[in-house]
Amino acid sequence: MPRDGGPARLRLQQAALDLYAERGFDRVTTAEIAARAGVTERTFYRHFADKREVLFDGEKTVRDALVAGVAGAPDSLAPLPALLWSLRTVVPLLEGNRPFSVPRHRIIAATPALREREQAKNAGMTEALASALRDRGASESTASLVAHVGMAAFTHAAAVWFLDPDRDLDGLLCDVFGELHPLTAPLAAAGAPEIPAKAASS
């Protein structure tokens, strides 16, 4: 997530990131983060509700940008291309925050409590996108399906981008979304495959 706020807030975010990387999330206290940043613990709590939220600052910024991207996509675009359009509009924002987001990704992957918070964040993002697609005229079912598929595709592209600094996030997004059509084309051509009677009754 992009980092928001003034110098003290940014110092707290960087201090937390450094300490989590050094010791692990569970072994770091808010007092230690504040001390590393050169502020009081009271100042920490003026900026963040708890030590998890340091890593999720900017969530609303990205969500609002994605919703605005869906709303601003050309009217001629179907729901899935409109979602890709939206995701591509936030690429510069994400690329500018890469020095923070890559180590953040590693810390979250290693910490079960943070993975739960990340899942909650993604669920909220997905629902916001579904709502934006419904506002464009997509049906309830289509909006929900496209939002879930689109977020899964984005997560896949971002995971590759985190691991390989030479890859281009915009290109990865286009490639991953491009792979969706050949995956579903056989169903469109032939319909759902028949299930053998024995398998269906077992």
Total helical segments: 11
Helix content: over 70%
Straight-line distance between termini:
46 Å
Order of helices and strands: HHHHHHHHHHH
Overall morphology = elongated
Walk me through the structure.
It is a single chain. This protein has helices at residues 7-23, 30-37, 41-47, 59-72, 79-89, 91-96, 98-109, 112-135, 140-163, 169-190, 197-201. Helix 4 runs parallel beside helix 8 and helix 5 runs parallel beside helix 9 (140-163). Helix content is 74%, strand content 0%. With 202 residues, the chain is an all-alpha fold.
SSE map:
Blueprint: H1 7-23, H2 30-37, H3 41-47, H4 59-72, H5 79-89, H6 91-96, H7 98-109, H8 112-135, H9 140-163, H10 169-190, H11 197-201
Helix pairs in contact: 1-2, 1-7, 2-3, 4-5, 4-8, 5-9, 8-9, 9-10
Give the key terms.
202 residues; mainly alpha; 11 helices; 0% strand
Short description:
With 202 residues, the protein is mainly α. The protein is built from eleven helices and no strands. Helices cover 74% and strands 0% of the residues.
